Amino acid sequence: MEKILVVNLGGQYAHLIARRIREIGAYAEIASYDSVLEVAKSDEVKAIVLSGGPASVYEPNSPDLPVDLLYLGKPVLGICFGHQWIAKKLGGVVERGKGEYGKTMVRILSSDPLFEGWEAEEVVWMSHSDYVKEVPSGFQVLAVSENGYVAAMRSGHIYGVQFHPEVRHTAKGVRLLENFVRKVAGIKSVWVPEEQVGKIVEEIKARVKEGIVVVGVSGGVDSTVTAVLLHMALGSRVKAVFIDHGLFREGEPEKAVQLLRSIGIDVLYIDARERFLKKLDGVSDCEEKRRIVGETFAEVFTEVVAGIPNAKYLAQGTLYPDVIESGAVKGADRIKSHHNVGGIPSWFSLELIEPLRDFYKDEVRRIAKSLGLPDEVVYRHPFPGPGLAVRIIGPFTLEKLEIVRRATKIVEEELDRAGLLRKVWQAFATVGEDKWVGVKGDRRAEGYIVTVRVVESEDAMTADWAKIPHDVLDKIASRIASEIPHVTMVTYAITSKPPSTIEPC
Ligand SMILES: Nc1ncnc2c1ncn2[C@@H]1O[C@H](COP(=O)(O)OP(=O)(O)OP(=O)(O)O)[C@@H](O)[C@H]1O
Ligand SMILES: O=c1[nH]c(=O)c2[nH+]cn([C@@H]3O[C@H](COP(=O)(O)O)[C@@H](O)[C@H]3O)c2[nH]1
Ligand SMILES: NC(=O)CC[C@H](N)C(=O)O
Ligand SMILES: [Mg+2]
């Protein structure tokens, strides 16, 4: 398979670059910068993209790559930090400038395959303070910004752009990436996630020659697709297990198990509620909550597998972002450890099977659709593995758990009634420790503050708070404060991601 390597030089946007390339229908993978040269030499790798990153190339400990990467004869596109790194490495000059942030005009100076379909002037999105003062010898300046900075440069098959084509605000960014992939790198193959099903099934068959695979299912689209693929490959040698950790939404375990059974997946329901809740009692730290859930999942899975004769593997619906966000790829910062990746304890010894580890959520939804799964599964909102535990800020208590559970139900009911639930990426409630003085029935009543969070997103890498109509918010707020005891204030979270994240914890 022809692939493009996206080298992560520390930017959260490396992900977005890979996603955009896949949207174009070419296959991209993220690589860490310290081991990229060997990987890049493989025949499958047809082109290399160097991401942005927070460091400055003239700082002593900034990420560095072997210069040989530029002499493999494969097209290279440096973006922002990547662009500056190419300039510096090949003898140009990079300095601190005035900085350009947000939408900026650039002028294209000469026609080039990279800019096919671009007008002479276009809007791009910038986020840099360093700039390329002098391009290396042999390089041509292809574009300049309205502030006179080098916006794009080229020498042979090596390109650098100061702006971010992967960000939606760059008007023709996708077109530029497409030009790089198809025109500059000449990649012809078209990568369609649905068409990978046959290959995934064959890979599972080749790996699991004998024995039983236990697959963890949560009712979400990722684990449901995982279970269906395993079932296609192994038939009755798959055993699905649903662990009830007591951190689900109201009625969710029953619904999930019923739905899985209705599509032909035989599920074993394990009630582990007491065990999880006991361990979480009083725990405040977010990462500690995640660690406890991960560890307890690992314990329960180990016991379940031990109890099933001839069970040899544990399968999970791990996705690519879980792997990246858990900091499992060098160069990427650990944002949150997903229980199924970063949260796995060191003693855990079951062999893992993760057929969707290279896929993004929207790709998994496409696969789910092509497998004929019901819309209820395909379009189900993501729900974090550690469940409502990550929606409780500060000490974990059963009281707060109950508040979050009831408030989330109200949020979902009201959005559904307004026809908005399906249209948003996620919608839920959270609760913290802060109190607000209220008055209920003429009495002073100090109560909790519930924060409602509704976001729109394409892939959870970035998200916007949803502009829900005031009357719907009003209904949600008044129901939460009147129906749930000890709640005296409801707030609506209006910070997008970044700089915030979707879940509070
Ligand atoms: N309660 C659970 N019981 C069994 N396995 C679970 C449970 N929760 C999570 N897992 C396993 O861990 C993996 C990652 O959890 P995650 O929360 O992403 O679930 P998911 O199925 O991907 O659902 P979603 O679509 O909501 O993301 C799942 O794919 C599944 O294999
Ligand atoms: O399977 C999961 N296990 C987790 O530990 C986890 N934490 C966050 N999420 C979901 O991931 C997306 C991004 O979340 P954040 O913006 O809060 O990081 C959002 O869709 C979150 O709901 C998780 N999913
Ligand atoms: N987004 C980036 O890659 C920034 C690169 C570099 N740190 C700058 O500020 O210019
Ligand atoms: Mg998931």
Which characteristics define this entry?
ATP-binding; 505 residues; 31% helix; binds glutamine; 5-stranded parallel beta sheet; binds magnesium ion; binds xanthosine-5'-monophosphate; binds adenosine-5'-triphosphate; 3 domains; GMP Synthetase, Chain A, domain 3; alpha/beta; Rossmann fold; 9-stranded mixed beta sheet
Using DSSP, what is the number of strands? Answer: 18
- Number of helices, where a helix is a run of at least 4 consecutive DSSP H or I residues: 14
Mean pLDDT over the residues: 92
Computed over alpha carbons, the radius of gyration is 25 Å
Which CATH first-tier class of the largest domain would you pick? Alpha Beta
Second CATH tier, the architecture of the largest domain = 3-Layer(aba) Sandwich
What is the CATH topology classification name of the largest domain?
Answer: Rossmann fold
Number of domains: 3
Structural class: alpha/beta
- The shape is globular
Catalogue the ligands: adenosine-5'-triphosphate, xanthosine-5'-monophosphate, glutamine, magnesium ion
Spans with pLDDT under 50 lasting ≥5 residues?
A: none
Span of the ends, CA to CA: 38 Å
The helical percent reads 25-40%
Strand order, biggest sheet?
2-1-3-4-9-8-7-5-6
Strand percentage: 25-35%
Biggest sheet, open or closed, and with what strands and sense? 9 strands, mixed
CATH superfamily of the largest domain: HUPs
